[in-house]
Known about the structure:
By secondary structure, the protein is an alpha+beta fold. It has helices spanning 11-15, 22-28, 102-106, 154-160, 218-225, 237-263, 275-280, 299-310, 323-326, 356-360, 369-385, 395-407, 423-428, 470-488, 528-532, 539-550; strands at residues 2-4, 7-9, 94-98, 113-116, 124-128, 131-134, 175-178, 189-195, 198-204, 337-338, 350-351, 419-420, 436-437, 512-513. A hairpin with a 2-residue loop joins strand 1 (2-4) and strand 2.
Amino acid sequence: MVVINGYSFKTQQLLTQQPDHPQLSQFAQPQSQGPHPVHPGPSPGQQQAGGSMTMPSSSAGKGKREWDINDAIVPHVPDQEFDEFNEWSDGHVRHIYSLHNEEAKKHISGWAMRNTNNHNVNILKKSCLGVLVCSQHCTLPNGSKINLRPAICDKARRKQEGKACPNKSCRGGRLEIKPCRGHCGYPVTHFWRHSGNAIFFQAKGVHDHLRPDPKNSSVSKRAFGRVPLGGKSGNGSVAKKSVIAGLVKQAKQQHSLISKVLKRPAVSNPLAHTALDIYQYNACGKCAAYSHCTCSYLDDSNTTRSHQLSQSSNYGTNSWPLSGSESSAPCETAANVFTVNHQHITYNYPIYHATPAAATAAPSKSPSLPYTCSISELAAYQQSSSGNSFAMGVPVHGHTQCQAVAYDSSPQLATPEPEFINYSQIKHLGGGVGQEEISCKAEPGPTIKYNATVETQPYVEDNYDYYYSPKAEYEMQQHHHQQQNHQQFGGNQTAGHHYYESSSGYNGVSYFDTGTTTAPGNTATGNGLEAGYGGYYDHYTSYEQQMAVAGGFATAAGSTAPAVVAPPGHPPPPPPPPTLTYHHHHHHHLHHPAAATGLAPSVTH
DNA sequence: CGGTGCGGGTCTA
DNA sequence: TAGACCCGCACCG
Length: 605
């Protein structure tokens, strides 16, 4: 068994994708449950691929890591196992942060994430706004492109759009938004949920664009503060020079990092596959038909990627999109989307065939093979640098992925492909709750309405401010950190993770459910209710409570409980109530009396 | 002023 | 029905 960032995988599975988990397979093949075909796409069966997907086994010890943001009950995580905050989470990843983690509390993200009303008060959903780019695709002195962070505020963002390109050398360029389509053609989404002593974070989709510069970056300031960026015509000055120098330095360092990453042996060591491999790529393969999936938006976007690659001079920068996004933004398997209630909540949960092949089997629709290959590698790098707690596909992936990505245009991956299982569904099996649906059957890409300035933009990833903003340093650290993570794979990555804490406890948000966390290791107590459930209470929570009782999960911290989801080899939890449906289609919380827990329902900060 | 969260509504598939 | 968005409002820094 291999533990990756807290997620356990059976070595066997990693090495071989054999369907050795009947139960999992079963769960992984929800289609068997109902009329809904798992994969409406070309190959309905692709997803199951033998059900080899490795669902982390709770019995394995890291079962607590098995959760989905929509799970009725999320695991309790020991304080020591909280993840280090990652502001650049990308791909289908999940993190569990300390309730005291300031960044987590603020739901911070390097990506421009805006609040999205998902009508679920328990889970905060945010979607990516993409990045601001120059309409002229101008190139900065360092060869990079304008890549600014869109304002979250609609009004502010509108003001940003149309502004003159901050690149002084740019003529007529205007800032425009390149929308994110990393999640089946839709913006990448982040979900935040406060439960118990932790903040659960789950991301869906892989950003198909570069990381935007920090809003306080020099470029941003110049862009919106009318401070001209260094340009040929530029007022050269010291600032300009320093910027260039920094860029050069940055490029070198990045190159160095990339080289390291690429050199890393991975092929020979399947186990070396990082969680990213598993959780990120697992994302894709969900689309019933990649051909239908707009994750990688074949249309005009392809060219964009190609262009990006073509200008990969500085691809090494931290902003480069993940391979998944570039060549094949993973999308979730439709079959794995479940709705538990009327809250518009999708239960997408990626189960990855913990096999090297799977990891590299990220489907791609991108026709640009050569670029794709490059991207794959870059992606691998970026993954690592992206700050994901999971290390990512190393060179191997890049390599393998070249094949997979470049040539595998088929949704069906011959190799074990990432699969998505709805944990909730699993839990609800028999309950008739989890009904699979197809999440990526349509091509949302074209449907993107706002700021549909999706033109091929040959922009190169770049962080001109890399050395100018505090963040730059941080990111660099992140890069290194990730590198380390890569090497750590195979071991408990979460252990020893530093997490930010603050004396101030989270005051509570509506989606903070204190009673939704399974107590650690408790296998037989159902008494957690009194302790864990304070004020916040809704059907969701109620259900969780029920589960807690029925399943012997203690909600109170300190107790130990089995993973929420029945792990392979473990019988699924007791059947859930018929439905987890909220009373009202739209939110309607019972105005959670946060009193008991001292949590203010609507206090956001 | 902008970030952030809430939540009522609309549109679309 | 569900997902994505839009929009206004409120709060906060």
